[in-house]
């Protein structure tokens, strides 16, 4: 009789342990799901401060165009109720003046902002350049080993192609870009166009064009977040 009672107590203890463990698993999954905030987007205007990025054929600096477009994307997303965090909102480099490697510190600080916030997607805004001045068109890059990054890039490129129907560029995988490798959430780099192309440089600095481009980027973000 005593043996049966002990077996019953043991069985109840095991059952209680399993229930407790199940609660912990459910709590962990819930926390993980909450960590990726579906209504939050991080926008990363590339370069800034003493780092101009690419310099166009007519002398326009990438850092200024990146920020201008990013602020317009932010405004558009916030109108739709999205929460937006910017890695920078001024012409600054995210590094201390006495940093031994300012570029690396700048990148690490951008990555920290993204990883700490855990957004649905992070979008880094950049401008491209090439030796052939006739090359133009927006293109989206994603981390080679990120399926969700690829999906986000596809959603973004789709909207960019609808915005500029002469553009035939496709998304491109990359496994070397530091920002793409180190971020813990789906992250894409949007190269909005080529500053080495005088025609496209003029468009990228035009207020009306920037607004239309920002609209396409915002649509790409919302398409990914909703789906």
Automatic annotation (TrEMBL):
Domain of life according to the entry: Bacteria
| Protein name per Swiss-Prot or TrEMBL | N-acetylmuramoyl-L-alanine amidase
For this UniProt record, the keywords arranged alphabetically read as follows: Hydrolase
Q: Name one GO biological process term.
A: peptidoglycan catabolic process
Per its record, what are the GO molecular function terms?
N-acetylmuramoyl-L-alanine amidase activity
Among SMART domains, the record links this protein to:
Ami_3 (SM00646)
InterPro entries assigned to the protein according to its UniProt record, in alphabetical order: MurNAc-LAA_cat (IPR002508), N-acetylmuramoyl_amidase_3 (IPR050695)
Q: Which residues cross the membrane?
A: none
Might you give the EC number(s) for this enzyme? 3.5.1.28
For this protein's source organism, the top of the classification is:
Bacteria, Bacillati, Bacillota, Clostridia, Lachnospirales
**UniProt-listed SUPFAM superfamilies:** Zn-dependent exopeptidases (SSF53187)
